C-alpha cells in the first residue's frame, strides 16, 4: 500500500482518537449501585430539608459533598445518571455525541466560534468522560489563587489515594517521551504529579486493569447517613428571600424537576451556616445564577427574568484552551493509549499524545465495526468535501460503508497535540432561553489575542521537531515529510470554521483553522468578580460557587486534579467555619 494512500485513508479516521480524549470508557462503579443514599429524582420527596444543597455531581461536587457529609446532612443533585457499565470506549463516545436524551452522559454543543464541544451529564462529571490524565497545578498557580498550600497538598493526596495510578507506558508513548526530550523539552522529570517545565509521565485515573475511576468514587468515602444523591434532577432556579437584619437576599433552597416534569422543592434547614453550593461547572453555574436572577440586568430582562442582583460579570471571562493536533500515520501497528506523557515547554505550550490500535472496534465475532463518532467521526472525514447541506445521515452511512472496504493498514497511527497555557483570549456565556435543560450560548474567542497565537506556533514547531526526531522514527514513514503530514491534517474538517485552500499554510493559519477544544473550558464566575476568596457569591448570602467557573486560567496541563482538590479543600474549610464560634 502506498504511503500517500495510507496517510490519506488514515485521515478518514483521524478524529476517532481525538474523540477518545473527551469521551472514553466509563467506570463500572458497582459500588455506587449498592449505596442506599443514591436515588432517582422521581423517587425523591416533593419537599425536603438539608444543611447543604450541592448542585452538580461532577468533578468538584462529588468530593465536596462527600467531605461535607462527615458532619452534616447533604443533598447532591445531579442532572445525569450513574456512569454506564460494560460499554466500550467507542460505544460511549457514540452515545454521548449522538443522543440528546437524559440517558446520554454528555451534551454536545457548538460554540459560537464554530468549535464542537461537550458538556458532562453524569455522576462524576468530566472525570467520567476525559482522557484520565492527572497532574497538579503549579506552585505559582496555588500562590496566585491565595490557597493554603498545606491544605492544598493534603487535599491532593486525599484525591490521589482514592483514584490515581501510575500508568504503564506503551512503546508509542515512550517514543513520544524520548522525542520530546530530543526536541529540547527538558529536563526529563520522570513520573510525577507536579507541574514543572520539561517532559514527564503523569498520573492516570485508569487502574492497571484499564478500569476508569471517577469523582463518583469519592462518594464511597461519604457518611451514608449524611448524604443523599438524587439523579436526573434538573435544577431550574435558586430560591431567595429577604431576611430581617440582612442587607442582601438570602438563598434558602432550590427547585428541581424530575424527568416527568414534576417540580420538587428542597429547603435549607434553619441555621446561619447552611448553604446552597453550585458545582455545576463552567456552563452550568453561570447559567443557573442567571436563571435565578443574578446576572447582567439587561440580558436577564431580555429573557423576562426578574432581576434580583444586577451582576454584570456573571458569564464573563469564559475561556477554553485551544487545542491543535496532527495525525501521524504509522508503518507499524500502534496500540491504544490515552494521554500519559506531557511536554511542558518554556514557551507556554503543552505537548501530549494519544494513539489508536487501527481505530477498529473489535466485536465478539472478530469482525471490525466502525462506530459513529459524531462530528469527530471518521465518517465526517469522508464527508469533508461535501457542502454542509449534503452531509445527511444517508451520506454518513455511505461513508461508513466505504471505510469498511479500506485496508486496515490505513488506520494505524496516533495524534500529537498541543494546548496553550492560559489562555489570554476569553469570551462569555449568555442564555439562549429560560429552559434549564438547554445549553447556553458560549463564545470563547479562540486566538483573539496575539500571545495565544504565538504560543500555539511555538507548540506546532515543537511537534515538527518531535516528528523529525530519531526517537520517533519507528512510528513515521521514512519518506513522509513534515509538511505533507501537517497539510493532510489541516484538510480534515475538525470544526465548522471556513478554510482557506492553499498549497502551504503558515503555522499561524494552521493554529486558527484547525482549532479544537481539549475540554478545559473555565471561567464565568471569577474569584474577585462574581465570588469572593471563599467562593461566596457577591450580593447575596448563603450561596457559593465552587468549580472551574471560578478559574481565570486553567490549572496545570489538565485541570481535573485541581478541580477535585478544590472540592475537598473547600469542604474542609466550610466544615471548619461551621464549628467556629
TrEMBL record:
* Alphabetical UniProt keywords: Disulfide bond, FAD, Flavoprotein, Signal
UniProt domain Glucose-methanol-choline oxidoreductase N-terminal: residue ranges: 281-295
Family annotation (Gene3D superfamilies) = 3.30.410.40, FAD/NAD(P)-binding domain
Q: Which residues bind FAD?
A: 59-60, 122, 235, 519-520, 559-560
- InterPro entries according to UniProt: FAD/NAD-bd_sf, GMC_Oxidoreductase-Related, GMC_OxRdtase, GMC_OxRdtase_N, GMC_OxRtase_C
Where are the disulfide bridges?
456-511
User: Signal peptide position in this chain?
Assistant: 1-27
Which GO molecular-function terms appear in the entry?
A: flavin adenine dinucleotide binding; oxidoreductase activity, acting on CH-OH group of donors
- Cofactor requirement: FAD
Query: What is the name attached to this protein's record?
Result: Glucose-methanol-choline oxidoreductase N-terminal domain-containing protein
Q: Which organism is it from?
A: Lolium multiflorum (Italian ryegrass)
Amino acid at each position: 500500500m502506498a504511503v500517500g494512500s495510507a496517510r490519506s485513508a488514515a485521515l478518514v479516521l483521524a478524529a476517532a482518537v481525538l474523540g477518545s480524549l473527551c469521551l472514553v470508557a466509563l467506570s463500572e462503579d458497582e459500588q455506587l449501585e449498592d449505596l442506599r443514599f443514591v436515588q432517582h429524582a422521581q423517587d425523591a420527596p416533593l419537599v425536603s430539608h438539608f444543611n447543604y444543597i450541592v448542585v452538580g455531581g461532577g468533578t468538584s461536587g462529588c468530593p465536596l459533598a462527600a467531605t461535607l457529609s462527615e458532619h452534616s446532612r447533604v443533598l447532591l443533585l445531579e442532572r445525569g445518571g450513574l456512569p454506564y457499565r460494560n460499554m466500550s470506549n467507542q460505544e460511549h463516545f457514540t452515545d454521548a455525541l449522538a443522543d440528546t436524551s437524559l440517558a446520554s452522559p454528555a451534551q454536545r454543543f457548538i460554540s459560537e466560534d464554530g468549535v464542537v464541544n461537550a458538556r458532562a451529564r453524569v455522576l462524576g462529571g468530566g472525570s467520567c468522560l476525559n482522557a484520565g490524565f492527572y497532574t497538579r497545578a503549579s506552585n505559582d498557580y496555588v500562590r496566585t489563587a491565595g490557597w493554603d498550600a498545606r491544605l492544598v497538598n493534603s487535599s491532593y493526596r486525599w484525591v490521589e489515594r482514592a483514584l490515581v495510578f501510575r500508568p504503564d507506558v506503551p512503546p508509542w508513548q515512550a517514543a513520544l517521551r524520548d522525542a520530546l526530550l530530543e526536541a529540547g523539552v527538558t529536563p526529563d522529570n520522570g513520573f510525577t504529579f507536579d507541574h514543572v517545565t520539561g517532559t514527564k509521565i503523569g498520573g492516570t485515573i485508569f487502574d492497571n486493569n484499564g478500569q476508569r475511576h471517577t469523582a463518583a468514587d469519592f462518594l464511597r468515602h461519604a457518611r451514608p447517613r449524611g448524604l443523599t444523591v438524587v439523579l436526573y434532577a434538573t435544577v431550574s432556579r435558586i430560591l431567595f428571600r429577604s431576611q430581617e437584619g440582612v442587607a442582601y437576599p438570602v438563598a434558602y433552597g432550590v427547585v428541581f424537576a424530575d424527568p416527568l416534569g414534576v417540580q420538587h422543592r428542597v429547603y435549607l434547614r434553619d441555621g446561619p451556616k447552611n448553604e446552597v453550593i453550585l458545582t455545576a461547572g463552567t456552563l452550568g453555574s453561570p447559567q443557573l445564577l442567571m436563571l435565578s436572577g443574578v446576572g447582567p440586568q439587561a440580558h436577564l430582562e431580555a429573557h423576562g427574568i426578574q432581576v434580583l442582583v444586577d451582576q454584570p460579570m456573571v458569564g464573563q471571562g469564559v475561556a477554553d484552551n485551544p487545542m491543535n493536533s496532527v495525525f501521524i500515520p504509522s508503518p507499524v501497528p500502534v496500540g491504544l493509549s490515552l494521554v500519559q506523557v506531557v511536554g511542558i515547554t518554556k514557551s507556554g505550550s503543552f505537548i501530549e499524545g494519544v494513539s489508536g490500535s487501527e481505530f477498529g472496534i473489535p466485536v465478539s465475532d472478530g469482525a471490525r465495526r466502525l462506530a459513529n463518532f459524531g462530528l469527530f467521526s471518521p465518517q465526517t472525514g469522508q464527508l469533508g468535501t461535501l457542502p454542509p447541506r449534503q452531509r445527511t445521515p444517508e451520506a454518513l452511512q455511505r461513508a461508513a460503508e466505504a471505510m469498511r472496504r479500506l485496508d486496515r493498514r490505513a488506520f494505524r497511527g496516533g495524534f500529537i497535540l498541543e494546548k496553550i497555557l492560559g489562555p489570554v483570549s476569553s469570551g462569555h456565556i449568555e442564555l439562549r432561553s429560560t429552559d434549564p435543560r438547554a445549553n447556553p450560548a458560549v463564545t470563547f474567542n479562540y486566538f483573539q489575542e496575539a500571545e495565544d497565537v504565538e504560543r500555539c506556533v511555538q507548540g506546532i514547531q515543537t511537534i515538527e521537531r518531535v516528528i523529525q526526531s530519531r526517537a520517533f522514527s519507528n512510528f513515521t514513514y521514512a519518506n513522509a515529510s513534515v509538511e505533507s503530514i501537517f497539510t493532510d491534517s489541516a484538510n480534515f474538517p475538525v470544526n465548522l470554521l471556513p478554510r482557506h485552500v492553499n498549497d502551504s499554510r503558515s503555522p499561524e493559519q494552521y493554529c486558527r483553522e484547525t482549532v479544537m477544544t481539549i475540554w478545559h473550558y473555565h471561567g464565568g464566575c471569577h474569584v474577585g468578580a462574581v465570588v469572593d476568596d471563599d467562593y461566596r457569591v457577591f450580593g447575596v448570602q448563603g450561596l457559593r460557587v465552587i468549580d472551574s467557573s471560578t478559574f481565570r486560567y486553567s490549572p496545570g496541563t489538565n485541570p481535573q486534579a485541581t478541580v477535585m482538590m478544590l472540592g475537598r479543600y473547600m469542604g474542609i474549610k466550610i466544615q471548619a467555619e461551621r464549628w467556629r464560634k
